[in-house]
Amino acid sequence: MIVRDFNEEFNGKRTIHSDGWNSTRLILKNDDMGYSFHITRIDKGAELKLQYLNHLETVYCITGLGEIVDLGTGETHKIQPGVLYALNKHDKHILKASTVLELACVFNPPVIGNEVHNADGAYELNAEPLDA
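Above: the chain sequence. Below: its structure as tokens.
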């Protein structure tokens, strides 16, 4: 059984900070669950151009307001508490935060630790793992 407290992990090595966001990675590849689970906060006003070329991602909005723009179709979708979106085709997108967004995110394959977005807006598969 794995038990972790977000409140303890938020100030520890499981929280990664980058431009416009931070992510507390509560489940990682070395936990052998087949996915990773993160609580991610997007800063108010952030606009992140992303495309996860190496991962599939499902995101559930806990708090905040924003929008996601599908760059393949041009469609814009509101993000608010209770909204879920899944990037099931490595969708190129822009995530915009009107307020601070708090999101629960699941990645497959799981991330291993210190990943931040590369120039393409993706996570590399060969990032340095975090110690458990």
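The chain is about 5% helix and 40% strand.
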